[in-house]
């Protein structure tokens, strides 16, 4: 069983703050909290399990959500030991707020694909097909990395998509497709791959115009900065990079 705790959205901020301020954590605790973009959930959970095995007595837990939501939580006082963003823009916001302990390092990159129902019943074959009248398309909100990437692709392709909804994380977009609430959604190639036979991925060449680079950094609020840096080292290690590559991430 996967042991890492997952906090899925900004609505969990109160819980995170409560847990951090409860005083219940033993002084010698070796638990670290990593705030990470939703698209990292599968890969980081695996890296975290290996990290725990390599560091007996240590537990790494995660809060997975849209990068913009995570930055909001951090600036409002939520405490974490490290932050992994799905783009440089949200990491820059964290830096400008004085949250980072040291310079972030880039560890992966990702591109968009179109997720559709298995077998592609709507016969979507191109990015421009997402403008077909009556087609229910879901994207990420503009402030979310996958949403800003979608906007860059639209501009590069000269295409204007009218989505039926804009979600706060890429996992929410994927869920709308897998549950039949949308005909198509713009997600990362890693999310489509992780969904297995629940979706069919439709690649499109314009995605190359919006490659998102993922940075990670330790946070000043960390009570365990040495462990936070060890986790970052684990992400950058050969094992961590192999896990990310297996999930579909490219090099930064």
How does the SSE layout of this entry go?
Layout lengths: L12 H9 L9 E7 L3 H14 L4 E7 L1 H9 L6 E3 L3 H9 L8 E6 L1 E5 L20 E4 L4 H13 L7 E3 L2 H9 L5 E5 H6 L5 E3 L9 E7 L6 H12 L1 H9 L6
Parallel strand pairs: 1-2, 1-3, 6-7, 6-8
Antiparallel strand pairs: 3-10, 4-10, 5-8, 5-9
Helix pairs in contact: 2-9, 3-4
What does this structure look like?
This is Molybdate ABC transporter substrate-binding protein. It comes from Mycolicibacterium gadium. Belongs to the bacterial solute-binding protein ModA family. The chain is of the alpha/beta class and 252 residues long. It has two domains: 10-109 and 214-246, D-Maltodextrin-Binding Protein, domain 2; 112-209, Periplasmic binding protein-like II (D-Maltodextrin-Binding Protein, domain 2). It has helices spanning 13-21, 41-54, 67-75, 88-96, 145-157, 170-178, 189-194, 225-236, 238-246, and strands at residues 31-37, 59-65, 82-84, 105-110, 112-116, 137-140, 165-167, 184-188, 200-202, 212-218. The strands form two sheets. It has a five-stranded mixed beta sheet. The longest helix has 14 residues, at 41-54. The protein is globular, with a radius of gyration of 18 Å. It starts with 12 loop residues before the first helix and ends in a 6-residue tail after the last helix. The model is unreliable at 1-28 (pLDDT under 50).
């Amino acid at each position: 069983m996967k042991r890492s705790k997952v906090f899925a959205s900004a609505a969990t901020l109160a819980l995170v703050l409560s847990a951090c301020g409860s005083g219940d954590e033993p002084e010698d605790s070796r638990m670290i909290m990593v705030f990470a973009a939703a698209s990292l959930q599968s890969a980081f959970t695996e890296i975290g399990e290996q990290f725990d095995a390599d560091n007996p007595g240590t537990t790494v837990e995660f809060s997975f959500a849209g990068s913009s939501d995570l930055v909001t939580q951090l600036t409002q006082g939520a405490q974490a030991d490290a932050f992994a963003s799905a783009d440089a823009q949200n990491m820059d916001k964290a830096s400008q707020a004085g949250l980072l302990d040291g310079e972030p390092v880039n560890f992966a990159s990702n591109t968009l694909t179109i997720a559709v129902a298995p077998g592609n019943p709507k016969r979507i074959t191109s990015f421009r097909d997402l403008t077909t009248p009556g087609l229910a398309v879901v994207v990420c909100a503009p402030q979310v990395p996958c949403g800003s990437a979608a906007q860059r692709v639209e501009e590069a392709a000269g295409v204007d998509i009218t989505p039926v909804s804009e979600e706060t994380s890429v996992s929410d977009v994927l869920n709308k497709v897998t549950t039949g609430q949308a005909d198509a959604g713009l997600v990362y190639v890693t999310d489509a791959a992780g969904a297995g036979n629940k979706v069919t991925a439709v690649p499109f060449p314009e995605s190359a115009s919006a490659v998102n680079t993922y940075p990670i950094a330790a946070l000043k609020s960390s009570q365990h900065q040495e462990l936070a840096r060890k986790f970052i080292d684990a992400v950058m290690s050969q094992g961590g990079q192999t896990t990310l590559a297996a999930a579909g991430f490219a090099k930064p």
